[in-house]
Specification:
A three-stranded mixed β-sheet has the order 1-2-3. By secondary structure, the chain is mainly α.
Length: 186
C-alpha cells in the first residue's frame, strides 16, 4: 500500500481507479475485518486502512484476491533463471490484465466467503493458543505469585549461587574423624 500511495502521489498522473491484488485471503480478510484482531495484526491493518483511505480520497480503489498460481509477484521470490526472467510476466504483469475485468481470474474482496473469514479467525486463534502455550512454558518462576521485588531478587540470587556451586569442580572433603581412623592402617 505504501508503494501504491507513493506512485499515485508522486507520478503526477491521473488514474481511473486503483486495483490491489493479493493471493492472501487471510490478509484481505484482516484488512476488511470489523472484528478485534491481535495487536500486531491491528497495527499493520490500521496502517493499510489509513493508506487505503488516503488513496480513496483521490481515486477509486478495489481489492482483489488472485489465485497464487496467477500471482506473478511471487515468481521472482521463488527464483527464476536469467533466461526465464527476460520475458517473464513479472516485468510486465500477467496477460489477463490486458483483458476486460470480467475475464480476470480474480475475486473482488467483497466476494470472500464467510468460510474464508472464519478460516482466518481459526488461524488467528491457533496462533494465539500457540503463543499462550509458549509463554506458559517460558515461565521459569511464577513471578505473579511473588509478593515483592526483594523476594524475587533473593530467589534469583539463591538460584544463581546454586548453579555456580553445582558447576564448580568438587574437591573431595575428608571427614576428620574418618582420617584418624585411617591413620593406623597407613
Amino acid at each position: 500500500m505504501n508503494m501504491t500511495e507513493y506512485i499515485i502521489t508522486k507520478s503526477g498522473l491521473k488514474y481511473d481507479k486503483v486495483n490491489i491484488f493479493s493471493d492472501s485471503t487471510i490478509a484481505l480478510a484482516w484488512i476488511h475485518s470489523k472484528k478485534r484482531l491481535p495487536s500486531l495484526v491491528t497495527k499493520l491493518t490500521q496502517k493499510i486502512q489509513m493508506s487505503r483511505e488516503r488513496i480513496a480520497s483521490i481515486q477509486k480503489i478495489r481489492f482483489y484476491h488472485v489465485p497464487t498460481e496467477e500471482n506473478v509477484a511471487d515468481h521472482a521470490t521463488r527464483g527464476l533463471s536469467r533466461e526465464a526472467a527476460r520475458n517473464h510476466a513479472w516485468f510486465k504483469g500477467p496477460e489477463w490484465l490486458n483483458s476486460t475485468e470480467s475475464n480476470w481470474p480474480v475475486s473482488p474482496v467483497e466476494e470472500l466467503t464467510r468460510t474464508d473469514e472464519d478460516e482466518c479467525y481459526a488461524f488467528l486463534n491457533a496462533i494465539e493458543e500457540t503463543n499462550k502455550i509458549a509463554h506458559e512454558k517460558a515461565r521459569i518462576w511464577p513471578t505473579e505469585e511473588i509478593s515483592s521485588y526483594d523476594k524475587i531478587k533473593r530467589i534469583v540470587a539463591y538460584s544463581l549461587r546454586f548453579v555456580r556451586n553445582i558447576s564448580r569442580p568438587r574437591i573431595a572433603s575428608i571427614d576428620c574423624c574418618e582420617t584418624f581412623d585411617l591413620i593406623p592402617n597407613a
